[in-house]
DNA sequence: CGCTTTATTGAGGGCGGTCAAAGAGCGTGG
DNA sequence: CCACGCTCTTTGACCGCCCTCAATAAAGCG
C-alpha cells in the first residue's frame, strides 16, 4: 500500500530542480507517497484531480484492451510530471514500474491558478502531446529494430551523458511501449549488442557504444 | 496558390458553431484562405505562429522520414481546429487532402490572452493529446482489420448520424494514418464490406450496415 | 541453494508487405 | 457522347518481418 510521507521530502529532488523552479514551488504544496512495484497510482476512468511528480523510481501509463492486449503510453522517471495528460477522467492507468516515491498535488491548483501556473500546465500538456506524436511515428512507421534503437537512444539522451544507462522497466514493459512482443525486443537488443551499437553490462544496464549508428537507426525521421 | 478571402467568409460555418462560441469569436479576427488539394498549409519545422480552422474540405498533418516513409498524425474536417498542437515550431506539416477553405488567426492572440481564451487553447491541446493517445493504442496493438474499422467508426461517429459518410481522403492517406499499406487498407475495406459491416456506394462513400459489429471490431479497448 | 520470475534463443507460422497486373473513376478533347 | 489517358483502387501471388509456441538460461529472492 502507498505510504504518505512528509512534504519536506521534496529534498529528494536534484538541486537543479529546486531553485527558482515554479513547478517545484507548486509541488511544495504536495504530499510524498511511496508505491511498490506494479502498484497502481491511478486507474483508468478514475477522476483526474491530482497531478504527480516522480521523485524516485519510474511510472508507466497503460491501456488494456478487453482481450488483454496492453499498450504503454509513456514512462516517467525522476523529475517527470504525469497525470495531467487528460480531461476530467484518466484514459490510461498509471503504475509504478518498480518501487517508487511520488509527489502528489491537487490539479485544481494548476487549472484555476491562471497566469504562470496555468501556462505551465498547458506547456506540460504540449510536451506530452509532442511525445505522443513521436510515439505515433514510431509505432506507425518504424521497424522493430528502429523502435528498440529509438527507445534506447531516448533513454540515453534523457539521462544526459551518463556512461551507463539503466532501464527501470522490464522487457515486457518495453515491448508494450514499442508495440512489439517481449521476444522481439529481446532479439533486437541482442542484435544491437552483437552489432557493437550498445553493450549490456547487466540485464537492465547498458552503455551506448556507437552513438552515431544508434542515432541513424533511431532518427530516420527528420 | 492559396488565395486570401475576406474575413466575412466566417459565415461558411454551420449556424450551431457561430452563436455564443468563443472559438468562433476568436476566428472572427482571422482571414479565410483557399488551398488546393495537396497544397501545404504549413511545413515541418516552420514557425508555429498561426492557428487554423477548417471551413470546407479537409487537412492532414504528416511527418515524412528520410527514406520517404510517411505517417499522418491526424485529419481535420469542417469545424476542426489545428496547428496549435506544438511548441514554437511545427513538428508535422499540414496539407489539404482536397480543395479546402481554411480560417487563419494569429496564435499569439491565444497564448497571451489569458483567461478564457488561454484555457481554450489548453483544452484544444488536451483534445489533441487524447486523440494522439487513441492513435498510439491503435498503432501499437490493433490488427489491420481493427484499425480500418476504428477509422470508419470514428469518421461515422464524427459525422453524427448521417446515413452516408464520405471519405474526404484517398486510400493512401488512410494507409499512412493507420500505419498500413494502401493494399492492406483496400483489402480490409473489401473484407468489411463482404462481411456486411459497411457498404460502399462509391469509392469514397460508405454507410454503416452493422454498427454493432463495427463497434466490436473497433473498440476492443475499454 | 532451490524456487520463482524474467530474459534469451530457436523453430515454425501467419499477418501484413511487396510486386505486379487488371479494373474503376474521371477529366480532357475529339 | 464516346474515346483516350491518367490516376486511384482493387485483387492476386508470393515473401518476409514479427508473432507464437516452446525450451533453456539467467536473475532475483527467500
Topology:
Two copies of one chain form a homodimer.
Chain A (H helix, E strand, L loop, with lengths): L2 E3 L16 H6 L3 E5 L4 E3 L7 E15 L5 E8 L3 E2 L10 E14 H7 L1 H27 L2 H15 L6 E2 L4 H8 L3 H13 L3 E5 L2 E4 L2 H8 L4
Antiparallel strand pairs in A: 1-2, 2-7, 3-7, 4-5, 4-6, 4-7, 8-10, 9-10
Helix pairs in contact in A: 2-3, 4-6, 4-7, 5-6
Chain A binds a DNA duplex (30 and 30 nucleotides) through helix 6.
User: Could you name the CATH class of the largest domain in chain A?
Assistant: Mainly Beta
Terminal Cα span of chain A: 45 Å
Which H/E pattern describes the elements of chain A?
EHEEEEEEHHHEHHEEH
Low-confidence stretches of chain A: 1-19
CATH superfamily of the largest domain in chain A: Jelly Rolls
Quaternary structure classification: homodimer
Tell me the count of domains of chain A: 2
CATH architecture of the largest domain in chain A: Sandwich
Give keywords.
Arc Repressor Mutant, subunit A; 222 residues; 27% strand; Jelly Rolls; three-stranded antiparallel β-sheet; homodimer; 38% helix; DNA-binding; disordered N terminus; alpha+beta; 7 helices; seven-stranded antiparallel β-sheet; 2 domains
Structural commentary:
The structure is a homodimer of 222-residue chains. Chain A has 222 residues and is of the alpha+beta class. The first copy, chain A, has two domains: 3-140, Jelly Rolls (Sandwich), CATH 2.60.120; 143-218, Orthogonal Bundle (Arc Repressor Mutant, subunit A), CATH 1.10.10.10. Chain A is 38% helix and 27% strand. Chain A has seven helices and ten strands. Chain A has helices spanning 22-27, 107-113, 115-141, 144-158, 171-178, 182-194, 211-218, and strands at 3-5, 31-35, 40-42, 50-64, 70-77, 81-82, 93-106, 165-166, 198-202, 205-208. In chain A, strands 1, 2, 3, 4, 5, 6 and 7 form a seven-stranded antiparallel β-sheet that branches. Chain A has a three-stranded antiparallel β-sheet with strand order 8-10-9. In chain A, a hairpin with a 2-residue loop joins strand 9 and strand 10 (205-208). The longest helix of chain A is centred in the middle third of the chain and has 27 residues, at 115-141. Chain A is globular, with a radius of gyration of 18 Å. Mean pLDDT of chain A is 87; it is low at 1-19. The interface between A and B is large, with 42 and 42 residues.
Amino acid at each position: 500500500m502507498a505510504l504518505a510521507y512528509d512534504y519536506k521530502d521534496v529534498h529528494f529532488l536534484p538541486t537543479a530542480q529546486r531553485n527558482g523552479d515554479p513547478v517545484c514551488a507548486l509541488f511544495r504544496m504536495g504530499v510524498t507517497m511511496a508505491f511498490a512495484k506494479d502498484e497502481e497510482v491511478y486507474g483508468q476512468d478514475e477522476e483526474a484531480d491530482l497531478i504527480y511528480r516522480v521523485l524516485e523510481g519510474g511510472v508507466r501509463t497503460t491501456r488494456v484492451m478487453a482481450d488483454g492486449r496492453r499498450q504503454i503510453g509513456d514512462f516517467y522517471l525522476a523529475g517527470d510530471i504525469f497525470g495531467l495528460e487528460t480531461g476530467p477522467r484518466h484514459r490510461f492507468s498509471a503504475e509504478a514500474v518498480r518501487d517508487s516515491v511520488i509527489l502528489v498535488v491537487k490539479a485544481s491548483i494548476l487549472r484555476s491558478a491562471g497566469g504562470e501556473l496555468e501556462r505551465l500546465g498547458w506547456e506540460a500538456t504540449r510536451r506530452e502531446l509532442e511525445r505522443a506524436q513521436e510515439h505515433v511515428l514510431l509505432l506507425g512507421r518504424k521497424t522493430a529494430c528502429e523502435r528498440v534503437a529509438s527507445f534506447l537512444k531516448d533513454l540515453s539522451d534523457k539521462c544526459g551523458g551518463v556512461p551507463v544507462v539503466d532501464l527501470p522497466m522490464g522487457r515486457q514493459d518495453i515491448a508494450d511501449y514499442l508495440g512489439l512482443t517481449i521476444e522481439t525486443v529481446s532479439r533486437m537488443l541482442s542484435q544491437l549488442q552483437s552489432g557493437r551499437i550498445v553493450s549490456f553490462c547487466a540485464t537492465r544496464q547498458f552503455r551506448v557504444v556507437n552513438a552515431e549508428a544508434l542515432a541513424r537507426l533511431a532518427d530516420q525521421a527528420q
